[in-house]
C-alpha cells in the first residue's frame, strides 16, 4: 500500500504557501476515495453578519461557503425552520462540586450571548427557540479539585427522536480554575449554543464528548471569551451520530490570553462529522494552538475540518499554530481539510498551519509485523498511537479510558 498525503503549511507572517505535491482542488477525491487537504486565501468566517435573529440569515442551499460540505437533507430541518421543537426528549443533568452555582434561567438573563453571537442560521435558530438555559458559575478565586460533569441525553418520543434547541453558559470568575466535561449520548435532533466566559487569570478545561446513537443529529456553536491572562483548553471528541457539525470559536477580552483547541474524531460508515473552527486574535499578545486528528473507515464516511485563524491589525505579539491530521483506514472514506490563516499585521511572534491526510504507513506496519505482531494488532497499535497525545490532554483517567475503549470498539467493527 502506498501512502497518499497532501500537506499545506504556513510559517511566520506568510499569508499563503503552495500545497506540496500534486493536489486536486478541495472537495475532490483521489483514487481510493481520499480527499486531500488544501488551503484557501478566503477565510471561512460565515458570510452573513453575526446576529441573534434567525431572520437575518437566508435559508442555505448548499452552495454557500459555510454550507458547501454539509448534507443539508440530513439536518432534519434545523437549517430551514421546519424542525419544530418537541419541548421534551433531551435531559440535561449537572453534577458540580461545592461552591459551584448551577441555575436554570429564562431568555432574559444578561449572561446569555456574552461570549459570542450566532454566525449561521442554525445557531440563530437555536438562540431564538430555546426556552430555558443552563448556567454554571464558578466564583472568582475558586479552584475546583473535581470536575463539573454535564450530561445531555436524548430519549426518543413515541419512537421518534426529539427536536430540541438549547443554550448552556459556563462562567469562571477571575483566577478561578475548573474542568468541565459535557457528555452527549442517546438519540436526538439537537441545535445548541454553548458559551464559555473566562474572567481575568481564570483557567478552564472543557471536554466535550459527542457519543450519540447512530441516527442522532447535533449542530452546535461553541463560543469562548478568554479574559486577560486567562487560559482556555478545549478537547472535542466526536464518535457517534448520523451528522455532527460543531463550530468552536475563540475571542480574547484582554492581552495575555491563551487558547488550546484539541479534537479527536472517528468517522464511521455513512457518518458526517464536521468541525469548523475560528480563532479571532483581536487582542495583542495572545496565543492559540489547534490540533485536531481524525480516523475514518467505511463507505461514505465523511469528515470535514475547517480551521480559520484571523490575526487582526491590532493584535501585535500574536503566537498561533493550527494542525489537522487524518488517517484513512479503508476505501470509500472522504476527508475535506481546509486550514486558513489571515494576517493583518507583521508584528507577530509566529503563525503557521499544517494539514495532512493519508493511509497507514507501510513502514510502521512492516516494523511491527516483523516483530511477530499480527497485522490486525499492528493496525490497532498505530491508531492508538495516532490519537495518544490528544487523549492525554484530557487529564481525567476515567474519561481517557472510556475514549480508548471506544476507539478499540471502532477498530473491532472495521475488522468484523
TrEMBL record:
GO terms for biological process: iron-sulfur cluster assembly. InterPro entries: Fe-S_cluster_assembly_SufBD, SUF_FeS_clus_asmbl_SufBD_core, SUF_FeS_clus_asmbl_SufBD_sf, SUF_FeS_clus_asmbl_SufD. Coiled coil: none annotated. Signal peptide: none annotated. Residues 1-31 are annotated as: Disordered. Residues 160-386 form the SUF system FeS cluster assembly SufBD core domain. Residues 21-31 have a biased composition (Low complexity). Belongs to the iron-sulfur cluster assembly SufBD family. NCBIfam families: sufD. This is Fe-S cluster assembly protein SufD. It comes from Streptomyces sulfonofaciens.
